[in-house]
Write the C-alpha cells for this entry.
Amino acid sequence: MIEARGLTKRYGDKLAVDDLSFTVRPGRVTGFLGPNGAGKTTTMRMILGLDRPTAGSVTVNGKPFAQSYSAMREVGALLDAKAVHGGRSAYKHLLCLAETNAIPRRRVDEVIGIVGLEDVAGKRSKGFSLGMSQRLGIAAALLGDPDVLMFDEPVNGLDPEGIRWIRLLMRSLAAEGRTVFVSSHLMSEMENTADHLIVIGRGTLIADCPVAEFTTGGTAQAATVKTPDDQRLADAVTAAGGMLERGEAGELTVRGLSAEQVGALALNHGILLHYLAPARVSLEEAFMELTADSVEYQAKTGVKQ
Amino acid sequence: MTTAAVPATPTRIRAVPAAAKRPGLPDALRSELTKILSVRSTYWTLLAQVVASIAWAVLNCAGIVSHGAGPGFNAAEASLTGQVALGELIIVVLGALVITSEYSTGMIRTSLAVMPRRGVLYAAKAMVFAAVTLTMSLVTSFVAFFVGQAILSSKHYNTTLAQPGVLRAVLLSAAIVAVFGLLAFGAGAIIRHTAGAITSIFGVIFLIPQLAQALPNSWFADVVRWLPGGEALSPIARSAPPISDHLFSAWGEFAVFSGYAVVLLAVGAWLFIRRDA
C-alpha cells in the first residue's frame, strides 16, 4: 500500500508535483498515467525517498520508505533501466544489491532465471540492449520478493513479446496480493494491464478511478447515432456543446454528450433517430480529453485560443 | 470507488527469508566490497598506483647510486617519495570515481532504493574504499622500500626497518595515500562529477602550495606547514625530519592532511544525506 498525502515538489519556481493525494492498494495493478513531464517520475522518486517533498508526505506500508525495516523486502522499484554501472556484470550488479539486505545468493540466480538473462549474466551490462536492461531492472526489483512493486515506464524499449511478458508478470504479481504501481504515458498500454488508474497532469490529480469507470464515465462521454436528418442534429448537438463526427455506414458519433442527452435533444428538436447507443470511448481518447489542458509541451496548431 | 479490490492475502509463499535484523553497516560493507571489486577501473587505478610508486623508487635510487647522495639525503625517503608524490595522485582518481561513478551512471538511485539509510551507505562506501586502498598502498610501500634499499645497498646508502623512524616512514607513506583518496572521495561526494572532483583536488594540492610561494618569505614560513600539499608532504616519507624547521613532524603533517580529509568527508556526508539523489 502506498499513500500520498498532499505531496508537493517544487524545483526552483517550477511546481513538478502539486498537492497530490492518492492511495495505491494491494491486489491490483494501478496505472499511473500522465503526459510526459506530468510529474510521474518525480512522484515515484519521492515515494523512494530519493527526492525530499517540498510539502506533504508519502508512506509505504504505513511508514516513510527510509524507515522501512528491510527496504528490498518492502519495495522493489524499476525507475530507470540504465541506472546501473555499465562496467559491472549483470550478476555482480544483482549480487551487490542483494547483499545490502542480506538476501541469499541463490535468489540472485533465481531472479536471473525469472527474467531470462541466464546467457548474459556474466557480461558487463554496458552492452545490453534497452530490452535487456529493462529485464535486469525488473530482476533487481524482484530480488527482495517485495510486497510493493513500482515500475516507471517498464515497456519502453521492449519488443511485443517482452511487452506481453511484462504485462503477465505485473498481473500475476498483483494476483499474489502485492501492490503494483506502474507508470506510463501511453493510455493504450494501461487498457490491458491496469485495474485502477491514477491520472495526473502538470503535477495535479486528474482522475483516480477503476479503468472501466474511466472509459465510460467522466467528461469523456459519447454516443453513436443514426438519423436521416444529419444537419439538424449537428446543429442541435453543437448548440448543446457537443461535437458531431461522421463515421462509417451513415453512423454519427457525438462527443461530449451522453446517449441520454442526445436522446432528449432529438426529442426536443423533433429529430427522428434510427439508432442511438452509448459509445465506448477508448482509454486513449478519454485520456487525451482529460489531459488536453495539462500537456506541458503542446504542439500549437492554428490560432491560439 | 465501489469496485472491491481484492485484499492482500498474506499466504504467499515467501521466496526470500525474512530479515533476521534490520540491514545495516555489515551488509552495506559487503555490498560495497562487491561493488568496488567488480569494476575494472579499480584494478587499473590500483595497478597504476603500485607500478608508478615502485618504478619511481627504482629510478630515484638508481639515480642516487650513480650521482652520489646529496645533502639532506634520507634512505627511506629515496625509496618512498614516489608513492607519496605520485601514487597519491593516482589514488585521487579512484577515490573520486568510487562515488562519482554512482552519479554518472545513475546507479546511486538504485543504491539508495535498496539501502535508504544514507549515512550507512556513505560510511560503508568510504570504509571499503579506504580499506582496499590501504591494503594495496601498504604492500606497495614495503615493496618500494625493500627494492629501493636493495639498489642503495650497492653504495651502502641503505637503511633498515629497525633504524629509528624508518618503519614509521614506510607506514605513513602508505597511510597518506589512503588519506588523499578519502580527500578525493569527500570532494566527489560534494561535487558529484568525476572530472570536476579530480580537477578540484589536483587544483588544491598543486595550486595552493604554488600560489603560497608568492607570499612574503616570513608569511610563507608561517603557513607552509598548513598547506594541503607541496613541502608539507616531505616529512612523511623521511625517517628523520627535513632541514626546514617550518614544518611539523611526520605525525604532525599527517594529522594536518587527515584534518583536511575529515572536513571534506564530513561536508560530503552532510550533503549526501540531505540532497536529492
